[in-house]
Design goal:
- By secondary structure, the chain is mainly beta.
- The protein is about 0% helix and about 50% strand.
- It has no helices and eleven strands.
- The strands form two sheets. Strands 2, 4, 5, 6, 9, 10 and 11 form a seven-stranded mixed β-sheet that branches. A four-stranded antiparallel β-sheet has the order 1-3-8-7, with no helix packed on it.
- The radius of gyration is 14 Å and the shape is globular.
């Protein structure tokens, strides 16, 4: 089992920045791909960004490309989501998720493939 804990959410004005963190604990001796997803009120959870097991490959939803950056530090078992130029449409609960991965550059971006999920952190962007 792997436990994931998100932090770094909060309230910010449009154009501002936040950095989310996802700290992993538990059975971390395997390789994991990690993704960020978000769910706005009344909407389905959607993919935001993902990173492969060693950080070489990253994937982004079109809506966040050029504004968000995902990265990881395997030494501290932490994945980050740097969010710049935030917009009110970015308001949502953000979740990090992980699945045990082969050592590949390919990363799955669909939620049901992920086995482990954090509890979520709220991001609110005001205009």
């Amino acid at each position: 089992q792997v436990q994931l804990v998100e932090s770094g959410g909060g309230s910010v004005q449009s154009g501002g920045s936040l950095r989310l963190s996802c700290a992993a604990s538990g059975r971390t001796n395997s390789d994991y791909a990690v993704g960020w997803f978000r769910q706005a009120p009344g909407k389905e959870r959607v993919f935001v960004a993902a990173i492969n097991w060693n950080g070489i490959s990253t994937y982004y939803a079109d809506s966040v490309k050029g504004r968000f950056t995902i990265s990881r530090d395997n030494a501290t078992m932490t994945v980050y989501l740097q969010m710049n130029s935030l917009k009110p449409d970015d308001t949502a609960v953000y979740y990090c998720a992980a699945y045990e991965s082969e050592r590949t550059v390919v990363v799955v971006t669909t939620g049901p493939f992920y086995d482990y999920w954090g509890q979520g952190t709220q991001v609110t962007v005001s205009s």
